[in-house]
């Protein structure tokens, strides 16, 4: 069973990232561009240029994990800010993001009260 590091520190790297990057390159990017320590157990999320691929980098006590998800329809909702390099998320917002839902303003789905 694959488990993700239990943490409350989840960061999105604003802007587009080259999806050819691997674990070492993404960890170096966290250190140099984001000015954060990739070995703290935090989760770092990166999105590709087209917006349908996301990579998640996490470090547990034994080493790095790299997860990739590609949507078949649509794009991942991603912040476009020039002031910030990272955006912090909660676990619930990360769950919405991975489901392809806009985590910034999720909306309720209409459910009829009467059957039929």
TrEMBL record:
Domain of life of the source: Bacteria
Entries under Pfam families matching the protein: TnpB_IS66 (PF05717)
Protein name listed in UniProt: IS66 family insertion sequence element accessory protein TnpB
Species classification: Bacteria, Pseudomonadati, Pseudomonadota, Alphaproteobacteria, Hyphomicrobiales
The encoding gene: tnpB
